[in-house]
């Protein structure tokens, strides 16, 4: 019995140490910059300046893209490019679902312009410069799922309707944590606002 308790204690301590290290690493990861214009509980309205993103678009839904898209983009930043250059991971990972296709994007570190990035070995990886936009977001924890996305998308839609704010129909999913982080996870559903004025 004592051996079982000792083993269990070691496993729990190791799990806690790994999760603490993971959370610390996530907190030190460069995030896509934005300014908060309004905040109300878990809801925010933000201004996002232009950013450079690397994207992959594939047929399939949110769940299938979580694996296939991530693999392609991670391959690029981990050296799968013309110069073998490693590029730091940032957050969030961004996903947009459109009819039968889903696009996943990594935000490139702020020190890079589109022209500075090495060409990808994988032709499905493309680059673009985002336009400055106002976004409405709702934050939630745990692992994301289709049901959770639908729930928080509805809550955000209702909040925007109460405030009389117009938004584009297409929602955006933003995830901030690696899949092996089990605690302290952060996700967001967002809409791009139309005609927002402070």
Properties at a glance:
alpha+beta, Multidrug-efflux Transporter 1 Regulator Bmrr, Chain A
What does this structure look like?
- With 198 residues, the protein is α+β, with helices and mostly antiparallel strands.
- The chain has two domains: 1-30; 31-194, Multidrug-efflux Transporter 1 Regulator Bmrr, Chain A.
- It has helices at residues 2-27, 62-77, 146-163; strands at residues 35-40, 43-48, 52-59, 93-98, 101-107, 126-129, 133-140, 166-175, 187-194.
- A nine-stranded antiparallel β-sheet has the order 1-2-7-9-8-4-5-3-6, covered by helices on one side.
- The longest helix is centred in the N-terminal third of the chain and has 26 residues, at 2-27.
- The protein is globular, with a radius of gyration of 19 Å.
- The N and C termini lie far apart (64 Å).
